[in-house]
Amino acid sequence: MKNFSTWILVMFMVMFWVLRIIVALAYQLKWDFPIQPIDGQIQFEIILLFVTLLCVILIVKRKMVGGLIYLLSYGLYFGINIVNNLQNIFTAVETVDMNLYINLFMSLLGIILPVAVMFDLLMDKNRKLHPKDKKTDWFYANEKFDRQLDERADKNNYRTM
Fold first, then answer.
1. Is residue 160 in some structural domain?
2. What is the pTM of this model?
3. CB 9 within 8 A of CB 113
4. pLDDT of 108-129, one tens digit each?
5. CB within 8 A of 20, min separation 6: which ones?
6. Degrees (nearest 5) of the Cα angle 120, 121, 127?
7. In this predicted model, what pLDDT tens digit does every residue of 77-114 receive, in sequence order?
8. How many domains does the chain fold into?
């Protein structure tokens, strides 16, 4: 990871992941926490936490598969909640609870973050133009230096007699 944007996005991913861990823990321990798992689906929330951990590792390694899995899993989980919350807000006859707005905001963050990660992965030209292979770069990276030494060595004709 050479880009500053990637570092920032990964930090936000980890912070959001920790927040979701706190949400799952608060739900299991029956704490009074304003953010709740969507529709009480704690099993899917825990599975999503492990998938997110795998995706963070893949995104740090600059793999496009990690970004796609991250976008699809968060899109399915939070996208449905956004649609349902917006329908509840627009069709509400009475006042809407504040928890609905908080959950809508968290769902929006859960959609914006994977989209930003995908744009970061797609816009990274350095990943495609200069792939790194640690096994062979130490050998081929010194090619210019080796040629300069060879040319200099050819000019030094010493006689051994």
1. no
2. 0.73
3. yes
4. 999 999 999 999 988 876 666 6
5. 45, 48, 49, 52
6. 120
7. 999 889 988 888 888 777 878 888 888 999 999 999 99
8. 1
